[in-house]
Design a protein that fits this description.
11 strands, mainly beta, four-stranded antiparallel β-sheet, about 120 residues
Length: about 120
């Protein structure tokens, strides 16, 4: 069983930055494909970014491409989402997710989820 714990959320002004972290345990971390999703009030959960187990392949939603680089440190069992140039529309609960085989944008295909962490961007 994989456990995922997010940290690093909070309140930030428009244009500011935050870095989310997600610590994983329970399976060899390098075997996990790691994704970030977000869900704003009244909206569906949406894909943000995903990174392969080696860290060599990454994919992003168009809305965050160029602003939210995803990275991982397999020695620390941690994946990161660096959020730059934040906008009010980035306000959401952000979730870390993991899969042992799927590297796409469909939330339903991920096997493991963190509890979520709030990110609020004030205008």
């Amino acid at each position: 069983q994989v456990q995922l714990v997010e940290s690093g959320g909070g309140l930030v002004q428009t244009g500011g930055s935050l870095r989310l972290s997600c610590a994983a345990s329970g399976l060899p971390f390098s075997a996990l494909i790691m994704g970030w999703f977000r869900q704003a009030p009244g909206k569906e959960r949406e894909f943000v970014a995903v990174i392969s187990g080696s860290g060599l392949r990454k994919s992003y939603a168009e809305s965050v491409k160029g602003r939210f680089p995803i990275s991982r440190d397999n020695a620390k069992n941690t994946v990161y989402l660096q959020m730059n140039s934040l906008k009010p529309e980035d306000t959401a609960v952000y979730y870390c997710a993991a899969s042992t085989y799927y590297s796409g944008s469909s939330a339903s295909a991920y096997d493991y989820w963190g509890q979520g962490i709030q990110v609020t961007v004030s205008s």
